[in-house]
Amino acid sequence: MSLLIRYPDNQPDQGHYYHDFADIAQHLHGIGVTFERWTAACSFAADADQATVLAAYAEPIARLQHQYGFQSVDVISLTAAHPDKAALRQKFLSEHTHDDFEVRFFVEGCGLFYLHVDTNVYAVLCEQGDLISVPAHTRHWFDLGENPQLKAIRLFTTPDGWVATFTGSDIAATFPTLDQIRAELP
């Protein structure tokens, strides 16, 4: 179940929850964020490689490449058994921006994007089938959880891929984590 929680950026205990996909998409559209749902042309084996995943989503990827000029597409796959899961989580948990807009499609599993826009933080729980596009220069961070389980397609307009500029803010440490939010859900 996709979820949006909107918080004042100085009150991480005062979130307003949105569960309906259309409501989530509408609120995010208001801050320049695309939020869509895709379906796969096939199902995957647990060990499906990058080529298999990209082939299943070839048509919508081609549409986005044509529309936005994406030069690089890859698949990130993380599980609880990944040897660098803690280091990767810490890297993404720090508030940062990108000169490029960030596009992720969740093939499997889930992750939590936090978008710091003006005086609000929008926590977006993305799950299988969700596509999110974070505008360039938007302050944000991402939590994949202590025991990640996700496979996501990443699209970039630069050949360099993921390049972050960290803000130095400790705001991410004040908000509930993916694991805490999931534990609260019914």
CATH architecture: Sandwich
Shape: globular
State the fourth-level CATH superfamily: Jelly Rolls
Number of strands: 11
Number of DSSP helices?
Answer: 5
User: Which value, in Å, is the CA radius of gyration?
Assistant: 16 Å
Label the structural class. Answer: alpha+beta
| CATH fold category name | Jelly Rolls
CATH class value: Mainly Beta
| Overall helicity | 10-25%
Please indicate the count of domains: 1
What's the helix-strand series? EEHEHHEHEEEEEEEH
The overall pLDDT, averaged over residues, is: 91
Taken as a percent bin, the fraction of beta residues is 25-35%
Low-pLDDT runs of 5+ residues are none
Largest sheet: 9 strands, antiparallel
Terminus-to-terminus distance: 11 Å
Oligomer: single chain
Element layout with pairings:
Elements: E1 3-8, E2 16-18, H1 21-29, E3 34-37, H2 50-56, H3 58-68, E4 72-78, H4 85-93, E5 96-97, E6 102-117, E7 120-127, E8 130-134, E9 139-143, E10 150-156, E11 165-166, H5 178-184
Antiparallel strand pairs: 1-2, 1-7, 3-8, 4-10, 5-11, 6-7, 6-8, 6-9, 6-10
Descriptive tags:
186 residues; alpha+beta; Jelly Rolls; 9-stranded antiparallel beta sheet; two-stranded antiparallel sheet; 11 strands; 23% helix; 35% strand; globular
Question: Summarize this, please?
Answer:
The chain is of the alpha+beta class and 186 residues long. The protein has 5 helices and 11 strands; from the N terminus they run E-E-H-E-H-H-E-H-E-E-E-E-E-E-E-H.
